[in-house]
Amino acid sequence: MSKSPNLLLPALGFAALAVGVAYGVSTRNYKAEEAALAQLQAERAAEQAAAKAAEVSALEAQIAQVQEVAREEVRLAALSGGTLSEPAPEREGTFGLGREAHPQEIAAWDVDVLPDGRGLPEGSGDVWTGEEVFVDQCAACHGDFAEGVDNWPVLAGGFDTLADEDPVKTVGSYWPYLSTVFDYVHRSMPFGAAGTLTADETYAITAYILYSNDLVDDDFVLSHENFAEVEMYNADGFVVDDRDATEYAEWRAEPCMEDCKDEVEVTMRSVFLVETPPEGGSNSVMNPARDIALPSFTAAGPSFIPEATPQPVETAILATAPAEPEPDQGDALVATGEKLFRQCSTCHEVGPGARNKSGPHLNGLFGRVMGSVDGFRYSGGFETAMEEGKVWDEAELAAFLADPKGYMSGTRMSFRGLKTDEDQAAIAAYLSAASE
User: Fold this and answer.
1) What is the number of H-type helices and E-type strands within the chain?
2) What is the pTM of this model?
3) If 0-12 CB within 10 Å is exposed, 13-18 middle and 19+ buried, where does residue 402 land?
4) Residues whose CB is less than 8 angstroms from the CB of residue 145 and which lie 6 or more positions away in sequence, other chains included
5) Under DSSP, is residue 288 helix (H, G, I), strand (E, B) or coil?
6) Which is nearest to 294 in space by CA: 283, 309, 280, 279?
7) Nearest of 222, 216, 226 to residue 201 by alpha carbon
8) With the CA atoms of 327, 333, 338 and 340 taken in that order, what torsion angle do they form, in degrees rounded to the nearest 10?
9) Domain 329-435, classified CATH 1.10.760.10, yes or no
10) 3-class DSSP state for residue 311?
11) Per-domain residue ranges of the chain
12) How far out from the chain centre does Cα 246 lie?
């Protein structure tokens, strides 16, 4: 027992030596990593310093250029015997202010695109690329099919409505120049990120908008070379404003100052002469009817009928009309289909008075030969289907709605499709009910 401490001492010595060696190795590795990190930081600092030096050099070059221009202006002023403080020389037809713009300044402002194509950047874009970019960048406001979302403007459809009481002014129905579309999209869109679209993306979006208005085919490619060849639907719908020559002379004639009344009396304000629609304006999306007191007219002028006294809760409940019976399953399916059809209504109409738009009307669809609506220009795929005598039924419609492009090659319909059987059945039920 007395020798056991002597046996442990060598073992403890070797353990201490091993710990010391391990600590030394780890310390050396840590120092190496620390040195490498310091070297990396030094290299990055050197790169940043070089970049800053380059920026300073570029700024100094710009300052030197401006100073050189200023010295040249001083020299020219001295040669002409004048000074820079003198007013600009007078020229015929000008006010003698300022100076002529430099070519670089004019180029910076001259970024618009003219109707004949001047100012267009080089580039091109096809319809299907345009559809992809439009869905990503524009559909949130204008809808997948350019039909407009909420109060954002609709870009497609509205043909032959300009003479209506509520005209639908779209790129297709109203805009006379394609250059306006390109210029506006290129400089002002997408919302919140103006100016971020490339020239090719802008060409593609413009091509898709044309396609959405059925003005070009699905294989159309728009470029700076064929831009001026595109004819807009309403290109001839605008006239030169010649009122200065035809009407201003009549407006500026000397007023009649004879046989005037001795006294002028205002008998009524024009706001009370406007005829209120029989339905109270409830059908107008611009001026929805509100629960307001209506004016009555007396000899003393307009007065308002006081609002009716609210009924007690018990009386109001008793006066409520009996609840209508719950709609059956068929009615519910039709109602669902009517809601789904809203995304189709930009291109198609159904029901009494339905007419062709950018897509054919859908009255009497089931049992109708595909591609057979009179007066509508179909794509090649539907023309072939008509020659083959293919007929619409619920199964064919469901297959078409599930994948329009896959079902009918070359179709101009850019609809992504209804993927569920329930939605397809609802559309079919609504089309059948609305056609009756």
Assistant:
1) 14, 4
2) 0.44
3) middle
4) 156, 212, 343, 346, 347, 414, 415
5) coil
6) 280
7) 222
8) 140
9) yes
10) coil
11) 55-84, 124-229, 329-435
12) 39
* C-alpha separations of 32 from 35, 87, 184, 244, 377 in Å: 5, 71, 59, 87, 77
Please name the fold of domain 124-229: Cytochrome Bc1 Complex; Chain D, domain 2 (1.10.760)
Question: Which residues are 222's β-sheet partners?
Answer: 125
pLDDT computed for residue 123 by the predictor: 96
Can you tell me the distance from the alpha carbon of 187 to that of 206, in angstroms, rounded to the nearest whole number?
13
For residue 167, the number of C-alpha atoms closer than 13 Å in the C-beta half-sphere is 13
Angle at 76 between CA 75 and CA 81, to 5 degrees: 100
The SS3 assignment for 364 reads coil
Query: Which pLDDT does position 51 carry in this prediction?
Result: 83
Tokens of 243: 């009122």
> What are the tokens at 20?
């010391």
With beta carbons less than 8 A apart as the criterion, state whether 27 and 34 touch: no
| Beta carbons within 8 Å of 376's beta carbon, 6+ residues apart | 356, 360
Alpha-carbon distance of 157 to 174, in angstroms, equals: 10
Per DSSP, the three-state class of 250 is helix
302, containing H or E segment: strand 301-304
- Taking the C-alpha atoms of residue 391 and residue 405, their distance in angstroms, rounded to an integer, is 18
C-alpha–C-alpha distance, residues 151 and 269, integer Å: 33
Report the alpha-carbon distance of residue 364 to residue 372 in Å, rounded: 12
User: Residue 313 to residues 142, 306, 308, 319, 320: CA-CA distances in angstroms?
Assistant: 45, 21, 15, 10, 11
Tokens representing residue 322 in the block: 């009996």
How would you class 377 by CB atoms within 10 Å of its CB: exposed for 0-12, middle for 13-18, buried for 19 or more?
A: exposed
Q: Report CA 354 to chain centroid distance, whole Å.
A: 28
Tokens (6 digits) for 334: 């039709």
* Element containing residue 426 per DSSP (H, E): helix 421-435
B/e letters for 343-376, b = 16+ CB within 10 Å, e = fewer, are ebebbbbbeeebebbbbbbbbebeeeebbbbeeb
pLDDT along the chain (436 residues), means of 10: 49 58 57 74 82 83 77 63 54 72 83 90 95 92 88 91 92 95 94 91 96 92 95 91 83 79 79 53 40 43 46 43 56 85 80 83 88 84 87 88 81 72 87 81
How many Cβ atoms are within 10 Å of 184's Cβ, its own excluded? Answer: 15
Q: How far apart are CA 43 and CA 37, in angstroms?
A: 10
> Count of CB atoms within 10 A of residue 241's CB?
8
By C-alpha distance, which of 340, 362, 342 is closest to 353? 362
